Amino acid sequence: MSNKVFAFVALAVALALAAVTQLIPNEYFFTAAYTVLLFVILATAWNILGGYTGYVNFGSAAFFAIGAYTTVFFYNAFKAPLAVGIVAGTLVAGLAGLGLGYLTLRLRGVFFAIASLALAVVLYVFVVNWDYVGGARGAYVLQPREIPFGMPRYIHLIYSVQLLMAAFALVVARAIEKSTMGRGLAAIRDDELAAECSGVPTLRLKIFSTMVSCALMGMAGTTFPYYLSYIEPSSAFSLSYAVNSIAMPLIGGMMSWMGPLIGAVLLGTVQQVVQVTVSSAWNLLIVGVLLVLFVTLAPNGIMGWVDAWRRRKGR
Amino acid sequence: MLGNGVVGISRRVLGALVIGFALSGTALAQQPLKIGFGMSLTGPLAGNGKAALISMQIWAEDVNAKGGLLGRKVELVYYDDQTNPATVPSLYSKLLDVDKVDLVVSGYGTAVIAPAMPLMMQRNMAFMGLFGLNVNSKFKYDRYFQIMPAGPDPAVDWTRGYFEAAMALNPKPGTVALVGADAEYPHLALEGARVHVKRLGLKVVYDKTYPPNTVDYSPIVRAIQATNPDLVYLASYPPDSAGMVRAANEVGLKTRMFGGGLVGPQFAALKTQLGPLLNGVINYEAYAPDINRKFPFLDQFLAKYQGRAVKEGVDPLGFYLPPYAYAMMQVLEQAIKATGGLDQAKLADYMHAYEFDTYVGKVRFARNGEWSVPRMLTVQYHGIGGNDLEQWTKPGHVTVLYPNEYKTGAVKAPYHENKK
Amino acid sequence: MEISTALLLNAIIAGLLLGGFYAAMSVGISISFGMLDVVNIAHPAFIILGSYIAYIVNDRFGFDPIVVSVVVSPLFFLLGMVLYRIYYVCFERRGQESLRGLAFFFGILFITEVALVLIFGVDYRMVSTRYGDVTWRAGAVDFPMRLAVPFLVSMTMVIGVQVFLTRTFFGRAVLAVAQDQLALRLMGVDPVRVKELAFALSIATAGVAGAFLIVIQPVQPAIGREFIGLVFAVCVLGGMGSILGTLLGAFVLGLAESFTSTFFGPSWAPAVSFGLLLATLAFRPSGLLGR
Fold first, then answer.
1. Residue A245's closest CA among A228, A229, A268, A277?
2. Could you tell me how far CA B38 lies from the centroid of its own chain?
3. pLDDT tens digits for range B194-210
4. Count of beta carbons in the 10 Å neighbourhood of residue B18
């Protein structure tokens, strides 16, 4: 399937889903689905760097928070509508990713991981001390009273927006994967030195995919202040974003765009269900146990099983 | 006028209808009245959240023992919000849309109350908040009520007692150091403190915040000491309350008044852990054994709570948050009984208009949903010896400095003299 | 603010004491991550586990937490051996250690944390020691025993590890593992065995550091996460695979924190520490004492 066709299909599916689900009377569906979609975007975005090149970004929460706080900034400064926040947040996060990549991607992968963690701490402190966006006290971002497209409530809107953004992230991830660039990235993952020697512009490719990956993570955060109405640094920089954006692609499979999608939908849904059925201490336990089980027993995730099954059938 | 046949039929129909009504009547009576909320059962504030939950469970048992509300059994439906605001919108929409609860109340603290507000406003629900500080200043929702006795202007009333007590010192203090953790509550408290500082013409010599996960607090206390302030106002959460109090002792902080807004020493855990280190510290409390005659209502609550709390491993004193969690439910209970239903508008109107008689005393709400009169006590800890809990249940260790109607003594200044 | 000598001296002492504690927390990472290339992100979870063991024994029998931790360190050593075996079989042998190994330790981190929550609940726990509230004063400078005692034990431990690694055959084998496994094999040493014991040693230091932690501040299961960044920062800042570098990195971070807190604003302390780390990574990636 060509990129254009896929983009069209993804968009159509997202729009159809958004339209059909509007009929669901119960608002819980939308809040739960919003959270799952948020993880779909984060996992897909993380995978563009982590899965395709093998460079681990520990700072997903930081880029997520950049997106969220850009929205807050534009809301505070100009009462700007959501769309402005989405565009700006994506750009700012992308720029931050570019900077981080430029400074540290020359190093071994593990140093990049630590640098991304350090960046998260530095940004956290910066936001805590920046009173204009609420600082440590947090900021209120009130949902507008008028809701476009005749939707009954604001959550319907941000859910639909999130759905479209998830589709967009998937289209980007797939396009990169199927392009020549995707093959270059895969070469980096398999053997960076060999790739470098055979003329793959490794640094440029890495920096580019870091930028795209971080920009999409920022995009995931842009609707978050509207979702919560109240945002404070510790919830925006929560470790759970960093962990889930790594865990979900691992569980789903990191070699293709479908892995993070499957992982995020699966793990995200399980977490939502566990939260309202058993206690949430168990929620963390489930993530932990699933992670350990998958990486030890199914190193290529769910997509790894699917591929193995396909190969067996093809033979 | 009616033919026999018709009467016959209608009798049968009537009979069926009567049976039907009777059935649906009993079905209704059996269907419990569900009250939903999220509560922090894991995460940093879980200790407090669990204590509140047990209070609310005791309330539900009490009500059900008396035959329930509106003839229905009361059932609490609650989820763990993990002390994480991000979980709140989906928990409350689940409560309303899937569990179909009849009423909701909030979890513990500002950070989890605020994210529930938009949903409450969309659904026009009457919403009781549990210890949120000034949540309604942004939302201005006329069906929001809050049970912590912070008063109608929480940002400013919260710190009033400390500064009133300070201005009673002789000679009057001139300089003040403001310090607090980087989190929502301490920043708000410090903001209020700055208002008083300005009003009273004090000079601020130190005004800084610290990250709540600091390991060693002594450099902060030394930096404060270097500015030699007359007063030190501190707003902190439990782990850093402990850290700052320890550091003040280690460094030997010399100032006339220290403390003010420490969250944590209200609960048994920090009272016993810090023990004598608390001597001389100024803080806020909701209750002090020295004035138990003015809080006769509390005994009824404590009789129910304390034994249970020890068994469940939560705050065994129950002076601070737990009675208010119970009282929050009493307010709802009385409003439901008085309005005879669950009409949210009527409930809110009633809660605005009338006074409630609860285990935390008589409660009347101001227009913004806060207590119409602040009742948080400003106190100073004295003569604590050792780390046992028993001494805290007896009068003589917690002097009430403010409000004046509860006052039992004046500040013993300077702070460091209390260590001897 | 006027900078007085006393304030300056105290800032230095406080920074060094804090650095000593940071060194104890990070020395294990310096071994596992710096020398063995095992990204043990669960290291702080074992520190917290050490805190809780010290806490139970202290609470029940009143023994000193640090003594307890030294006594039970063989248990941590065993735990480390088991853990490394699993890690080796599942990841290292398959040659997929980097990312999946990391995720594995993430999982271990959560499982440990939840296990502690289920057993002990989420309340902050503290220990009582005889020196906990004592401060020793020398002129204008004070040494709170709460930090000074862990500092002294930590120095003994870190220097002990350094001596062990540089002066014993086994220790040199550990250092060699990081550089040339083949040479090691030719010398008749099994690199896996060496790594196993070295990893076990790193976990044992975590147990002892846990006792320091609970002497210094109240502990709750989830606070381990706060230290993930710190231990890696110390290790990378000082230079990978060098114990003395780790010591130096720990002191630099401790001093940075205490100076920022004293003279600038405590709120910025973590940004200064991690900013230092970022700058090191960008401009001198081999660390302060790196090879």
1. A268
2. 15
3. 999 999 999 999 999 99
4. 10
Q: Is the dihedral of CA B110, B111, B113, B118 positive or negative?
A: positive
Long-range CB contact pairs, B389-394, < 8 A, 24+: B389/B268, B389/B271, B389/B272, B389/B316, B389/B317, B392/B268, B392/B271, B392/B272, B392/B289, B392/B317, B393/B289, B393/B317, B394/B289
Q: How many other CB atoms sit within 10 Å of the CB of residue C171?
A: 18
For residues B350 and A281, give the distance between their C-alpha atoms in angstroms, rounded to a whole number: 39
How many CA atoms lie less than 13 Å away from C275 in the CB half-sphere? 13
Can you give the residue range of the structural domain that contains B54?
33-149+295-363
Residues of B in contact with A68 (CB under 8 A): none
Encode pLDDT of A158-194 as tens digits.
999 999 999 999 999 999 999 888 888 888 888 888 8
The answer to whether residue B16 sits within a structural domain is no
What gap in Å lies between CA A176 and CA C100, rounded to an integer?
23
pLDDT at B296 (0 to 100): 87
Residue C254 has pLDDT above 90, yes or no: yes
Taken in order of first residue, the domains within chain C and their CATH numbers are 5-283 (1.10.3470)
Task: Residue A27: list chain B partners with CB under 8 A.
Answer: 93, 96-97, 119
Give pLDDT, residue A219: 96
The total number of structural domains that make up chain B? 2
Confidence (pTM): 0.88
- Using the predicted structure, report yes or no on whether residue B107 has a pLDDT greater than 60: yes
Which of B250, B310, B239 is closest to B273 using CA atoms?
Answer: B239
Q: Give CA–CA dist C175/A79, Å, rounded.
A: 59
- Where residue B398 falls (left for φ over 0; alpha for ψ -120 to 50; beta otherwise) is beta
Q: What pLDDT is stored for residue B22 in this prediction?
A: 43
B107 and B165 belong to one structural domain: no
Quote the pLDDT of residue C2. 52
Residue C44 pLDDT class (50, 70, 90 cuts) = very high
In angstroms, the CA B44 to CA B245 distance is 19
The verdict on residue B91 lying in a domain is yes
DSSP track, A4-30 = HHHHHHHHHHHHHHHHHHTT---HHHH
Contacts of residue C278 in chain A, CB cutoff 8 Å? 103, 115, 118-119, 122
- CATH number of the domain to which B206 belongs: 3.40.50.2300
Q: Nearest by CB to A227, which of B84, B89, B117?
A: B89
**Angstroms from C200 CA to nearest CA on chain A:** 20
Residues B273 and B287 in one domain: yes
Closest Cβ opposite residue A114 in set C96, C113, C281:
C281
Contact, B218 vs B225, CB < 8 A?
no
Q: Is the residue at B168 inside a domain?
A: yes
- Longest CA pairwise span in chain C (Å): 63
Give CA–CA dist A191/A198, Å, rounded: 11
The pLDDT tens digits of the residues spanning C77-106 come to 999 999 999 998 888 877 665 778 888 888
**What pLDDT does residue B1 have?**
36
User: Taking the alpha carbons of C174, C175, C181, C186 in that order, is the dihedral positive or negative?
Assistant: negative
Tokens describing residue A115: 């640098």
Q: Which residues of C touch A285 (CB under 8 A)?
A: 110-111, 114
User: Distance between CA A259 and CA A50 in Å, rounded?
Assistant: 12
| DSSP per position, B73-124 | -EEEEEEE-TT-GGGHHHHHHIIIIIS--SEEEEEESHHHHGGGHHHHHHHT
Q: What is the mean pLDDT of residues C14-19?
A: 95
**Can you read off the two tokens belonging to residue B19?**
């049976």
Maximal CA-CA distance, chain A? 63
Chain C (98-137) residues lying within 8 Å, Cβ to Cβ, of chain A: 98-104, 106-111, 113-114, 117-118
A13 Cβ neighbours under 8 A, 6+ residues apart:
A167
pLDDT digits (tens, 9 = 90+) for B326-366: 999 999 999 999 999 899 999 999 999 999 999 999 999 99
Whether residue B140 sits in one domain with residue B37:
yes
